[in-house]
Amino acid sequence: MEAAGKEEISVEDEAVDKNIFKDCSKIAFYRRQKQQLSRRATYQASLDSATTGKDSTKFRIINETTKVPLLVEVYGIEGNIFRLKINEETPLKPRYEVPDVLTSKPSTVRLISCAGDADSLVLADGKGDLKCHITANPFKIDLVSEEEVVMSINSLGQLYFEHLQIPLKQRATKENKEDTSVDASQEDQEDLGLWEEKFGKFVDVKVNGPASIGLDFSLHGFEHLYGIPQHAESHQLKNTSDGDAYRLYNLDVYGYKIHDKMGIYGSVPYLLAHKPGRTLGIFWLNASETLVEINTEPAVKYTLTQMGPVAAKQKVRCRTDVHWMSESGIIDVFLLTGPTPSDVFGQYSYLTVSGSSPRSGRRGI
User: Fold this and answer.
1) CA–CA separation, 232 vs 176, rounded Å?
2) Higher pLDDT, 300 or 314
3) What 8-state DSSP symbol labels residue 206?
4) Cα 295 to chain center, whole Å?
5) 3-state DSSP helix/strand/coil percent for the chain, to nearest 5?
6) DSSP state of 356
7) For the segment 270-293, what is each residue's pLDDT rounded down to a tens digit?
8) pTM for this structure?
9) Which residues lie closer than 8 Å to 47 by C-beta, 6 or more apart?
10) Per the omega criterion (within 30 degrees of 0), is the bond before 298 cis?
């Protein structure tokens, strides 16, 4: 027994070859997004030209640095669901959108413009219980339920969208030597993986350059999050501020680390947030490699000069920020507003299970 106590044996170390797995520092699009977001480039929405049709409300947003426009579409979907899509307005070629996951085209609910001008726009569903407050500069969306902001989108300014580019070889034949030298210097930045990314003996060639996307969601009053399987971790999702992000990437591996955020087996970009009185869901419809960062901010402490029931209610209000980053595709996200856990499960089933109802989640007969 004494000898056994001196010899430490780790089954995990024997079963796992750590060299064959990526952590965040080895993922190029993660490094690029972190580097660019530190420069705080913001987007501004052109709400004065917003158009509301039968299925969606559309408007443009423009990056203040690149001046390249993106097209934003906001959909109201039957059963208290909102859908947000962001894509290049005029992409070099169609960007990949995930087929087959949605069992059918969701039934839309016409959104009504309650108020709006060049600086803001308020969209509501037919009942008026749920509203989208869109702010132009900087671009932000607040999801409001019964006059309470339950979710904010891009409130941290982490919207990120890399535009498809003409391949370097084709560009060199069209542009002068000066421009070609600039491209060559970019190509030499292997660390950013702009046109080619290497990991071990594998080489990933990006014909149209980098194409990653990212967006942040702030969940007000929530600190308990679940979902985004599959990981060998605790049921409740943990903060990632002190380590790697949760990785969604399908892997079929013999050995894997436990108590770790690396992706294993299946990849389901579906996250739940719960607090007394409300449950929310975020369904990030993207099939490429995805990283999810989670950070919970403690309750805000107010000064003694703020008195009354409103201040007391705000005093215990915490916030959890969720930052989604994907290697390619478009931003296509469903906001499942509940308000109960059963409602959220029903809303998700309605989108992904054939014959389900958006209210109950049960299969039709």
Assistant:
1) 52
2) 300
3) -
4) 14
5) 20, 35, 45
6) B
7) 999 999 999 999 999 999 999 999
8) 0.86
9) 59, 116, 117, 118, 119, 120, 121, 134, 136
10) no
Q: Give the separation between CA 214 and CA 287, rounded to whole angstroms.
A: 14
Q: Rounded distance, CA 32 to CA 26, Å?
A: 11
pLDDT at site 351: 96
Radius of gyration of the chain (CA): 22
Contact indicator for 131, 114 with CB cutoff of 8 Å: yes
Helix (H) or strand (E) holding 177: helix 177-187
Q: Given this model, what pLDDT does residue 299 score? A: 73
**Residue 307 and residue 347: Cα distance in Å, rounded?**
39
Cβ contacts of 171 within 8 Å, gap of 6 or more: 165, 179, 180, 183
Among the listed ranges 32-36, 272-276, 303-307, 336-340, which one has the minimum average pLDDT value? Answer: 303-307
CA 311, CA 98: separation in Å to the nearest integer?
Answer: 44
| pLDDT band with cut points at 50, 70 and 90 for residue 188 | very low
How far CA 275 is from CA of 29, 169, 218, 332, 341, in Å, comes to 33, 53, 14, 25, 10
pLDDT at 179 over 80: no
- Beta carbons of 294 and 225 less than 8 angstroms apart: yes
* pLDDT at residue 268, rounded to an integer: 96
92: left (phi over 0), alpha (psi -120 to 50) or beta: alpha
How many Cβ atoms sit within 10 Å of the Cβ of residue 293?
A: 21
What are the structure tokens assigned to 37, written together?
């977001």
Nearest alpha-carbon partner for 349 in 281, 301, 267, 258: 281
Please give the full DSSP string across 303-343, using - where no structure is assigned: PTT--SHHHHHHHT--EEEEEEEESSS-EEEEEE--SSHHH
User: What does DSSP say about strands 196-199 and 56-63: parallel, antiparallel, or unpaired?
Assistant: unpaired
The pLDDT, as a whole number, for residue 361 is 45
CB contact at 8 A, 239 and 224: no
- Asked whether 228 and 269 are in contact (CB, 8 A), the reply is yes
Rounding to the nearest 10 degrees, give the CA dihedral for residues 215, 220, 222, 223: 70
